[in-house]
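Dear colleague,

Thank you for sharing your sequence with our group. We've completed the structure prediction you requested, and as agreed, I am returning the results in plain text so they can be pasted directly into your records. Please verify that the sequence below matches your submission; if there's any discrepancy, let me know and we will rerun it promptly.
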Amino acid sequence: MAPPHACGTGVGADEFVVMLRHLADAAVWASGGSSMRGARGCNTAPEGKDSNAVSTGFLSVLVARLEGAAKSTQDAMSSASTMLCLGALRFTLRLVAARHASPCMRCARTRGTVHVDRFTSLHWSLANMIVQLQGFRREKSSWRRTVREFLNRHKISASLSVRVRRHVDRSQPQKVRDTNAESLGRLSTEIMVDLLEEMRVPALSAHPFFVGLRSKHPHLVRELCHEALQPMLKSSDEIVFCAGEACSKMYVIISGHAQYNASMQARDGGPGASMSHIRRTLHSGQWLSEAALWTGWVHRGELRVVTDCMLVALDASGFARVISSHKSAHRDAAAYARKFVESLNRGLQTDLVEVGQLEQ
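Please find the predicted structure tokens below.
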């Protein structure tokens, strides 16, 4: 059986915490790849910034810190109540055990035949509740510790930190239902997008088309990420896609390693032409199946996970819907699409085709 996060999309707290670990790994990779990243990450206020904006920003930070303090207090109270419940259950279990072991002069003959099953059942029920509550407490403590370390290590802003902590609490397994799974998944994606942005981890930001789009329409890229981007968790040796499958998503690797394999004939080769074999190991910041955004596409090879991976998938229909709602962005996308398809038709068609490597 696959682990809980094998095909996860971050709905549950356990999957979300695993995604945070992947983000931490991706941040290390990204920081090693660009010496300018720290300079871009500095939020230096412009000299001409007016006092109203400064005071508004100060109030926002203050409110976020107060919310964080309130959340810490709530977590402490929750832990204390769990400890009280455990203590009460243990005390009750001892009383039941003592009562079971104590002699009864009136019913000594019948205790073994009538009451043993009742006491045993109650004893086992209480013991089972204690074990389950202890397991839940350990798991919850582990989640909170991991989240706290992640937020502190990467200096996540106070407002986003509160959102992360609240989401972990709301997405605990016993709180996830069919009625709220969709909204939790959407919220998880929005938080992940904001974390990627704040941590300067390359997702779409490494792609030349989206670099240009961000410079002209920064709010559009954010809308695109919220509407069409979906985080994915894949386990080692898991297959993401196979050759011949219809494709409607572009994939970007955030963390981990995956291997792409394809075998195909050259476009101008005859029936006896030799096969071209492609094998490439991909890592953080690299993408596949970009063609799905610009034309109808079928996977030409197989993508298999080498180490546990976090990817994001950009849905082609969601991408088209967002882009088409902005005229200038749609015009730029159409020009890029024409160039991409022309390049695609000239070369070897694989999921690794990147027209952004050419001169624009």
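Summary note from our side: The first strand starts at residue 229 and ends at 234.

Kind regards,
the structure core
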